[in-house]
Every structure is written in structure tokens, then in C-alpha cells.
Amino acid sequence: MGKKIIIIGGGIIGLSSAYFLSKSGHEVTVIDKSDISSGASFVNAGYLTPSHIVPLAAPGVLMQGLKWMMDSSSPLYIKPRWDLDFLKWSWYFHRSSTKAKVEKAIPVIKEINLLSRELFQDIKTSGDLGDFQLERQGLLMLYQTEAAQEHELAVAKKAEQLGLEVSEVDSSGLERLQPEVKINAQGAIYYECDGHTTPNEFMPKMVAYLQRVGVRFKINEEVRDLTIEGGKITEVQTSRNAYQGDEIVLAAGSWSGRIAKKLGKIVPLQAGKGYSINVSRDTGITLPAILMESKMAVTPMRGFTRFAGTMEFSGINQIIRKERVEAIAKGAQRFYPELEITAEEKSEAKMGLRPVSPDGLPYIGRFKGFSNLILATGHAMMGWSLGPATGKFVQQLIDVVKPDMELTPFAPDRKFN
Asked: Which residue intervals of 213-359 are DSSP H helices?
């Protein structure tokens, strides 16, 4: 007999969890403080990225962020502020950014990405959502300098050793791959293992499907408190109502840490703000690309090309910094010299807050001390790519079946010092 499941959070992680839990026969309710029409699950690059094997917490990343601290248009911007949670998170990030820890994380990231990529395909094949974009055209890591080339060649070598499809492309090869657009690059590393989607298309179709199969949605309801009795959450109280469930899934993205505090739990988590600009006219771009020196992503989606990027640590807020939007537009033109993003297109830029753990690995698993609570957040820039796999793991944990991979690296209670 199915359980009553309450999922806090209606992003890609929450919806993926609802998808697999409903298929497993559970009664699911999704609670979200928004109307599930915006945020990180809608403005991301839409990548399915087995190639992204190196976690954000890599050697030198934090130091570079500190150097850029006074430049609010930099690719990695850390807003100067006195915030004890952020200072602790920064220390944990520093402790995680070692070569040994990165090497240990690489095969874990590859494995969960490959699993999630196949689950996206399973969802497509099932026909549950109807038609949606899911393409496997790969990803170009475009570079303009030898330094960037050498950096990515080292990553490509690791990826190849792990069995991923990767090759090097020179400037003439780029012309053959992208004949309809001029690219200012020396060459690229081509990860043929990657895929892409259109999040704005996928998310509404997933919501519609879940509603058809009986999943209840409680939107525009903010979680205010949780009642605990005997190590079990017995009630979730929102701004409008109160709900009881057998199992609680906390998948509220960047807000998960705030909610966990209501339980007396500290989850090291920071909101990493990202921006995106949609260009609805024909750009000639048909292959997804990372513009390495501009540190941004480009994705040909259904009906538009998306230019996305930046990582901004400035707390939880909805502020769109014009200088960061401008940096994305300039970064795009640096690689696509004949493309100019208009003032109107820039004015319609969107932002989303990505939940970032200190070591770049998500939190997936049960919390010690609570018999019916599962945490599913902290995916940083891989939230979209890892959504289905995370949802599948949540279902497997609740059904008490062996997960498709070892979840110890994702333990919510893991230590960073």
C-alpha cells in the first residue's frame, strides 16, 4: 500500500521525485512557495552533462572568486558581506577544494550523470509528457587561448579514461560542425556524450502529467514550520494550511537550508545565482557550447537560443544585476562576433538561485535523527542534469530498495572539515 508523501519544492528535483514516487503507487503532494513557473529549473542551460565531471569545489576556484570580489560583473562574484553561514560554507568549500577530493568525486559525478541521462530518455520513451526536446548532439567546449585548451584537454583525458565519448576539433572542424554561424575560437573539445533539453518546455509538461495522475499541487504556499514528535515529522505547516504525511522530501533548492534550520539541522548550502538571456531570432547556432574564456553556456532550445552563465554568491534575493547580464551579452559576442544581443533581449533576462553544497556534490539521503525525512538538494550547476536520477533515488529510499548507485558520497550529514 502506498504512502502519503509530502514534497517541499516544485523544481526539477521535486517534480522528478513526484514522478517516480507516483509511478511507485504513492499519494504525493508537492508544496511550493511559487507558482512553479520561474526559478533555476526554468532559466538553466538545459544540459545533460556526463562531461561535467569536475565539481565546482576545485583547487583555485575560491581564490579566484576572492580576487573578483570587487567586480560585480565577474563570472564568479562573491558579494562582500558578514554572514556566519556563508563564512562557514566558504571554509568548507576551501577544505573540499583539494586535488585528492576532486579526484574522488569525479567517478561519482560521472556515474550519476549517466544514470540521469538515461532516465531522461526513459521519460521521453514512456510518452508520459508527450513530445519534448531531448537531443544528444554533444557539447562543444570552445576555447580562444592555449591555456584554456590545455585545461580542457586535461579534463578530456580523464573523461576518456572514464569511457566518455570525447574528441578534439580544430577551427576548420568547427566550421563543418557549425556552418551557419561564425565562431571566434581556436578550436574545441567535443563531448559527444552530452545532451540538452528546453527546461521551459519540460517543466510545464511534467506538472501537467503529474496532475493527470493525481499528484496534488499546493502552490504559493510557504513552509513556515514543521512539527516533530519522537524523531518524526508529523506535520508541515505552510502560510495557508497544514499537511500530514508518512514521508517528507525536502527539495526546496536554495531555501532548503532555511527550512532545515526549523528542524535544528545545519545544512551547509549557499544560493548561487545564475542568469540567462533568450534570443528568439535565428542565430545559426545548432550545437550547445561552453564559451570557456567567457565562462558561459549557449544552448539551441526550441524556439530560441539561450545564453546563460555566471555564479553570484550574494545571498537569497531576486535582484537582477544589469552589469552581469551585460557581461553575458559581451561574452557571447566575443565568441560569436556577428551576433549582437539587443537591449530588449537583455531587458528580459531572467535569474535563478542554484543550491550549492561546499564540495560540489548534492545532498541525497535520509537525515540522521528523523525517521521520515529525505533531503534532495545542493546540486549546484548540475541540478537540471541530475534531476531524474535524484528523483529515482528518493523513490528507492522510500521504497527501501537498493539504489541504482552507492549514495554515501551524497549523505546529508557528511563532514567537510
From this structure: 256-261, 322-335, 343-347
